[in-house]
Amino acid sequence: MKLRCSLGMTTSAIRLPSQLFLDGAFQRSRSGRHTSLINPATEQAFCEVDAADVAEVDASIVSAHRAWESGWRDMSPGKRTEILFNVSRVLRENIEHIAQLERLQVGKPIADARDEAGLGARVFEYYAGGITRFYGQTIPVSRGGFDFTLRQSMGVVAAIVPWNFPFPIACWKVAPALAAGNCVVLKPASISPLTALLLGELAHSAGLPPGVLQVLPGSGSVIGDALVNHPLIRKVSFTGSTEIGRRIMELASRDLKRVSLELGGKSPNIVFADSDWQKAAECSPMSVFANTGQDCCARSRMFVERPIYEGFVERFVAATRQLKVGDPALETTQLGPLVSSGQRATVEEFLANARSCGTRFALGGDRPASQGYYLNPAVLLEPGREDRCWKEEIFGPVVAIVPFDDEAAMLREVNASPYGLSGSLWTNDIRRALRVARAVQSGVLSVNSHSSVHVEAPFGGFKTSGIGRDLGMAAMEGYTELKNVYVAE
Ligand code: NAD
Ligand code: MN
Fold first, then answer.
1. Predicted local distance difference test score (pLDDT) of residue 11
2. Helix, strand, or coil (residue 154)
3. Which of these, 150, 258, 312, 451, is most buried using a 10 Å CB contact count?
4. pLDDT value of residue 13
5. pTM (2 decimals)?
6. For 69, which DSSP code?
7. pLDDT tens-place string over residues 295-340
8. Residues near 364 by Cβ (< 8 Å), separated by ≥ 6?
9. Is 462 exposed, middle or buried (0-12, 13-18, 19+ CB in 10 A)?
10. Are 180 and 208 in contact (CB under 8 A)?
11. How far is CA 325 from CA 97, 161, 332, 338, 398, in A?
């Protein structure tokens, strides 16, 4: 593999994949397009990665389709299991490499990056084990005879992923799609191609046949439409903004392609006075500020019951002050920089809007360093309903906290959001927990916890937060067509 990277001090020891990964090998982009990657912690360009154009989209899909028809589709479940277990093992052996690439390209704190690399490996392990535990049904149809269902692969799946959790989200889509017998063309976000490319290379080295997983770095505005519109793509699995998700669904409607869309969120964190609210206050800052707030599940709207409101805010602010913002290369860093200057500018616009609305800042919103796209986490109190920070997804380290008096009125406001991805509620009353968990309109909810993602459980949104589910066996179902076969007696 030929590198086209300017290796700086911090990157010299880290191998940077910089070309398209197609048909089992790294390949130069024929168009000469490339993306210059910027390390958000230093603001320095550190690598140039080839970017695909429309001709390469077509060629990669055609060859993925060939790989599907000529082998992967009909490979025995046992053999496919063996290969995916092997991929998982090779990913585990390369956790440090994956983590360092993630740190460089998106400013991910290194400890988080290692956890996320491990999560990706675990996803492959789970679906490898799922292949032979994925059953159809036998159905006692009225007319007698023998009726059974088959879960069949679809063909080539386009997986389009964002920059906030580049490696694990790629694994969430690639592993179940491959397990179900599909081939995949993976398009990482243009600014975060490195871990996707490494995934392609490592999976191939673990025994995945050429063409089964194609990795196409490039810009969504250049190759997105060609990828989604291609007649050989049978399903588009997308994670990203609601705006692009809508566009993909529109384009997919022409050929009735299957879509699964994991989109934005504005998730609530609801704290009742009968809860262990001191504990909630201490662990809630990371439920919104982790990944510097660039998390679709960020609990960015907090509803705190009036009797504990002041005490809760005091503890929440104190816990936020303790968070370590800084160099993602340090083991102790909890919040790295935002991913780009553009992303920071967007967040700062939200903060300017909050100031102009007269919203009170309990803390933060300022820049802690002159270099790197850092921003101190901001805690906003009781924003007016016209403050955009209260309604819109910010995708940065900003939380807004309001008190509430009445459970039913609070739930009406929670559910007035067009989003419905995740949420948390804190209470020690089991009846309240069950009642509120049922009432919140979101795909994922946690009680006395902020944990949203479990490899074994379905993850996805209600309303404009999406369609379809990642993870769990629900995701594997989503990468198959359901066939019914009837055999006369
Ligand atoms: P984005 O929608 O801008 O980009 C996501 C991906 O789509 C990238 O790979 C991008 O290159 C590609 N893309 C852009 N234009 C395209 C087009 N016309 N056709 C096809 N693909 C195109 O999102 P982003 O800015 O990378 O990520 C932030 C958003 O992602 C936030 O809204 C966040 O909530 C959402 N997100 C959701 C989840 C979830 O699981 N629900 C997870 C992470 C991020
Ligand atoms: Mn974007």
1. 58
2. coil
3. 312
4. 83
5. 0.96
6. I
7. 999 999 999 999 999 999 999 999 999 999 999 999 999 999 999 9
8. 320, 375, 376, 377, 378, 379, 397
9. middle
10. no
11. 23, 26, 9, 11, 14
CATH of 20-263+466-486, one of 3.40.605.10, 3.30.70.20, 1.10.287.130, 3.40.50.300: 3.40.605.10
Q: Note if 296 is an active site residue.
A: yes
Right CATH number for 268-454 from 2.30.38.10, 3.40.309.10, 1.10.3470.10, 3.30.390.30?
3.40.309.10
Ligand 1 atom at minimal distance to the Cα of residue 296: 34
Secondary structure of residue 403 in the 3-state scheme? strand
Which DSSP state fits 176? H
**How does pLDDT run across 443-481, given as a tens digit for each residue?**
999 999 999 999 999 999 999 999 999 999 999 999 999
Do residues 379 and 364 touch, judged by C-beta distance below 8 A?
yes
The Cβ of residue 209 has, within 10 Å, a number of other Cβ atoms equal to: 16
Catalytically annotated residue among 47, 183, 296, 297: 296
pLDDT tens across 408-450, in order? 999 999 999 999 999 999 999 999 999 999 999 999 999 999 9
Residues with CB under 6 A from ligand 1: 160-164, 187, 189-190, 220-221, 224-225, 228, 239-241, 244, 247-248, 262-265, 296, 393, 395, 421, 461, 466
| Domain boundaries along the sequence of the chain | 20-263+466-486, 268-454
Output the residue whose Cα is nearest ligand 1's atom 9: 189
